Amino acid sequence: MSKIPQKWMVVLSVLIGSFTMILNNSMLNPAVPQLMTVFEADAVSTGWVITIFMVTMGMTMPLTGFMGDKWGKKRLYLIGLTIFVVGSILGSLSWNLSSLIFFRGLQGVGGGIMMPLSMALIFEVFPKKERGLATGVWGISAMMAPTIGPTLGGVLIETASWHYLFLCNVPVGILGIVFAAKYLKETKKNEKIVFDRLGFIAVTFGVGLILLALARTSTFEHLTNPINIALFIIGCLSLYWFVRIENRTEQPLLDLSIFKVSTYTMSVIISGITSIGLFGSIFLIPLLLQNVYGYNAIVTGLVFLPSALLTGVFMTVGGRILDRKGAAGVVTIGLIIITISTFMLGFLSLETSVWFIVLVMVIRGIGMGLSSMPATTAGMNSIPENIVSRGSAMNNVLRQMSSSLGIVFISIYFEVRRTQLFATTETMEVANLQAINEGFIVLGVLTAITIPAGYFLRTKKIEENKKTKQVS
After folding, report:
1. Which of 22, 34, 120, 338 has the fewest CB atoms lying closer than 10 Å?
2. What pTM, to 2 d.p., does this model score?
3. What is the pLDDT of residues 368-377, one digit of tens each?
């Protein structure tokens, strides 16, 4: 290990932690049916095992910028990873569904601390001209884990006990703590920073209630549920209150002036839409392969694997291009590739070969690798160094909300459309296929809209930098 440069050990350290956290979250999705049996609970109650993680993670993220500045990013990252590992140990010891949900919420708090700090810690040790490659390597965790997690989770469920879905985090998590303690760089602390209490209350309620409403929504009936509507409206009002507070607070929890930097704003738009596309396809592809073509969960996982691998490889390629030539070209090309390949998935037939789907998914994975992380890195490079951790927190919160919104939108569209189509088609397979095709066309249109944003991802201008100069 001594021959590897210190800065790359930082990347490896945060990659271990973030990959473990994201992988574990996606591994639990196929476990819900078994957990329903184990704890003798219904689907709604058991679904909280997934929901609570997303909600507590989203509520914690806005705090990481302030806490990282106050206590130091390395110390806070270690606290977050430790909380996640402890939550994993306790989760494996759960004695009923309520305890399992509580410990999953604890895992979400740890994950909410870790994710925004991961990129901020990388930025601490890499100069701007090298950050594209570094974040591309780290980004493998964010893009590959959601695609391979369900397959690994299914294998564990079939061959072992649900307890191992939590226990498998422990050795890797401890390894991540050891690496982080040894290789992460100590960062400066700002003891004089003041906690924005009102901003914290507003953003916590806003993000938490919106994520809760989205997590409770998977059908059209859920969308019209008065409780879900109330949660969403109150959440939006809380975020509006949050914006008003931040604009008049001397030391805001999240400095919204960074959105005056056009490159950062464009990067957030791109990362949000690509997240919708990623998680929308993670929802649709298993339905396509299992409900239309009749393949099992193992085949479904294998279809995702080549795409995930190519996404990881081309994240590093995209990062290198970003470092050498800037973001506009590589991100625009990536978005065009995603758009074309997503539209291709919108014109499948009952006779389509699984190998064609694998090929299109691979092409789409290449586009994801070239666009997602390079766009995020370009946006983070465009804001002042002293608010990188807060910019990362903002980016992660919006990405989390976009992912949730994408899943809700696609799931409701699929359920409503296949019901309508089944009334006019001969079989449910045909109705499912057409609804899935239409879902991919919608995702393709969304991605196409972002292509101009990729083109305008330019290196930050001096006057843009001045707009956030007051933040210090």
Report:
1. 34
2. 0.81
3. 989 988 888 8
